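Design request, tokens follow.
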């Protein structure tokens, strides 16, 4: 993973490199059973070069804690590795240019579970696994068994933790989905 991280740190393949302070390659356990994939770095992630260390990260930490999952046991990364200006959505072209890095990371970690956080991660991963979807509100709370990049994986689409910041309904649903993940982890040992 380290050579890949080095490559990402100096990458200039799409225009997002121009305004970044730090590319955020990802972090965590390389043997993780669970890989969490967010959308893109935000302000603090860009400053610190680490994923989910701002307000959304705080929510994520709480969810993991309640599900009894340690941040040290998971791998966390994003669909695109550099912060889009003003936290705008990543463009399709930026996603297309950056995701070979994500694919490579998935192949290195080979997780049992891929948790997608938000619609960008969900649509990228589910399309890659040839699963048709009808939007994140319909697909969260379910687990999709799939063949992804040549191996078996369970895909668990969830809302983005930032959505839970100001909306208790999303917070509850996100919590429920992490509890579902917890049960599934226990079931599969
Ligand atoms: N939001 C994301 O999608 N990813 C991060 O790393 C932080 C906030
Ligand atoms: Fe490279 Fe991805 Fe950053 Fe674009 S977002 S410069 S492709 S690392």
């Amino acid at each position: 993973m380290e050579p890949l991280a080095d490559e990402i740190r100096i990458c200039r393949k799409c225009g997002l490199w121009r305004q970044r302070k730090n590319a955020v390659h990802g972090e965590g356990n390389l043997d993780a059973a669970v890989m969490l994939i967010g959308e893109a770095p935000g302000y603090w992630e860009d400053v610190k070069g680490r994923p989910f260390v701002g307000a959304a990260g705080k929510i994520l930490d709480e969810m993991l804690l309640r599900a009894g999952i340690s941040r040290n046991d998971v791998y966390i990364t994003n669909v695109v590795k550099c912060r889009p200006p003003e936290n705008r959505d990543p463009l399709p072209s930026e996603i297309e240019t950056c995701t070979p890095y994500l694919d490579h990371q998935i192949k290195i970690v080979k997780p049992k579970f891929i948790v997608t956080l938000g619609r960008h991660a969900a649509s990228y991963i589910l399309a890659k696994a040839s699963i048709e979807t009808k939007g994140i509100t319909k697909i969260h709370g379910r687990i999709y068994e799939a063949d992804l990049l040549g191996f078996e994986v369970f895909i668990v689409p969830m809302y983005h933790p930032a959505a839970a910041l100001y909306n208790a309904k999303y917070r509850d649903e996100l919590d429920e989905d992490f509890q579902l993940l917890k049960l599934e982890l226990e079931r599969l040992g």
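Comment from the thread starter after seeing the answer: thanks! The domain at 2-188 is CATH 3.40.470.10 (Uracil-DNA Glycosylase, subunit E).
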